[in-house]
Design brief:
Distance between the termini: 27 Å
CATH class of the largest domain: Alpha Beta
CATH superfamily of the largest domain: Type I PLP-dependent aspartate aminotransferase-like (Major domain)
Number of helices: 13
Radius of gyration: 22 Å
Number of strands: 13
Number of domains: 2
Bound molecules: pyridoxal-5'-phosphate
CATH architecture of the largest domain: 3-Layer(aba) Sandwich
Strand content: 5-15%
Shape: globular
CATH topology of the largest domain: Aspartate Aminotransferase, domain 2
Largest sheet: 7 strands, mixed
Length: 401
């Protein structure tokens, strides 16, 4: 047991110097509220929206207090009402069904495949149950978006994308977040750009974005936005839309703008790390890696593999052995929700039909964070440890059964 990994799985990189300098400037002038501008000044929040719209190719962008708030705003602005049903992924994180519950709607869970994307057959079977799909690109796994959109368009189902794990990613030539009516992003510390908390919402739909801007708490100051629909779109909407404050402030926007400039470079660095791990684990007996189609231009800020059909105590054994060697793995199959892992049946406020195929996949999903503070050598070492410990438990169970 000499070979112990000592890296920290929750340690992100520091905020770039340019972000720190911009944040200091905001604190020095004191105008943190996004609508508090000096004469001729353009607020950091408005600039961030303009730059994120340009980066994604969206017509409009709105900066918000969190990714969860971006999702509830997208649902409200798409007309979801109390009591409506909203389709969403069974394999996702708690804020996604939480956003649906926040608007008084009811999640209808759609299954997950072995490649960790939404099961399009299950989706097709359930499309008639709702008018909206909140599609979570969970852990950066992107389904065939051409097929998904064809299914949803034919059924008249509006797609809202949860891109908390796909900032900078694409399916084919079209960025994640640009397929549906809205794309929702998080800038919470564990995502692709870090302001502690924060969210971004993009859309090409002028009326829906005007409603989102009113909902976010823009008072009547929407003309200060630079990535917003023209004022005439607000003519009626401004009277009809409640203010449910959840704006982003200039301090967070200042921290994010320099990070956005580096996003492409960072995405490449994540994927370099992912490749080292995937190569190192390829062909490990008992371990399955999700297939990643060529069209899926993912950003791997985390790593998943499957121990499919393993007995729970064997999985626990792998987790314990890896932990003893400094490797923190999370298991989506655990009975009790712990930390960031939970399953659709842990959200008891939103009961679901059982989904045996999905339960089988969830029971095997192992998840690992991949912070950029890990070097390529670290990733090589992590692969060696996981490979050795999975193999040891696999061989032992082989001899027992
Ligand atoms: C983090 C996350 C969100 C929401 O982000 P917050 O900013 O924490 O509200 C949404 N979906 C997924 C899959 C996430 O991981």
């Amino acid at each position: 047991m000499t070979d112990v990994f000592t890296g920290n799985f929750t340690q992100q990189e520091p905020i770039p110097d340019a972000g720190i300098a911009a944040a200091l400037a905001v604190m020095q002038h004191g105008r943190l509220h996004r609508y508090n501008e000096a004469e001729g000044e353009i607020a950091e929040a408005a600039r961030l929206e303009e730059e994120f719209a340009a980066a994604t190719g969206a017509s409009y962008c709105l900066a918000l207090a969190s990714g969860g708030y971006a999702m509830t705003t997208a649902l409200r602005a798409s007309g979801v009402q109390h009591g409506d049903r909203v389709l969403t992924n069974a394999f996702t994180l708690a804020p996604v069904p939480g956003a649906i519950a926040a608007v008084g709607a009811v999640p209808v869970f759609v299954g997950v495949t072995k490649d960790l994307v939404i099961d399009l057959d299950d989706l097709a079977a359930k499309l008639s149950q709702a008018k909206v799909l909140l599609l979570s690109h969970m852990r950066g796994h992107i389904c065939d978006m051409v097929q998904l959109m064809a299914l949803c368009d034919a059924a008249g189902v509006t797609v809202i994308e949860d891109c908390a794990h796909t900032m900078g990613a694409a399916w084919g030539a079209i960025p994640s977040g640009r397929w549906g009516k809205f794309g929702c992003y998080s800038t919470q510390t564990y995502k692709h750009i870090n302001s502690g908390e924060g969210g971004l919402l993009i859309s090409d739909d002028a009326e829906a974005m005007a409603r989102a801007i009113m909902l976010s708490g823009s008072y009547m100051l929407f003309e200060k936005h630079r990535a917003a629909p023209p004022p005439e779109i607000f003519a009626q909407i401004k009277y009809e839309t409640p203010n449910i404050s959840g704006r982003m402030d200039n301090l967070r926007a200042a921290i994010l703008r320099p990070q956005l400039q580096e996003l492409d470079t960072q995405c490449k660095r994540w994927n370099d790390r992912y490749s080292v791990l995937a190569d190192g684990l390829q062909g490990t007996p008992g371990l399955t890696l999700p297939t990643r189609p060529q069209e899926e231009r993912f950003v791997a800020s985390s790593f998943q593999f499957l121990l499919l059909d393993w007995a729970p105590e064997r999985v626990q054994d792998v987790l314990a052995r890896c932990k003893a060697r400094g490797v923190e793995l999370k298991w989506f199959g655990g009975q009790e929700p712990t930390g960031f892992t939970s399953r659709y049946d842990s959200w008891r406020y939103a009961p679901s039909e059982p989904m045996p195929q999905t339960d089988r996949v969830l029971a095997g999903i192992i998840d690992m964070r991949l912070p950029l503070t890990f070097s390529l050598n670290d990733c090589q070492f992590l692969a060696e440890i996981i490979r050795a410990e999975v193999s040891a438990v696999w061989q032992a169970s082989d001899t027992i059964t």
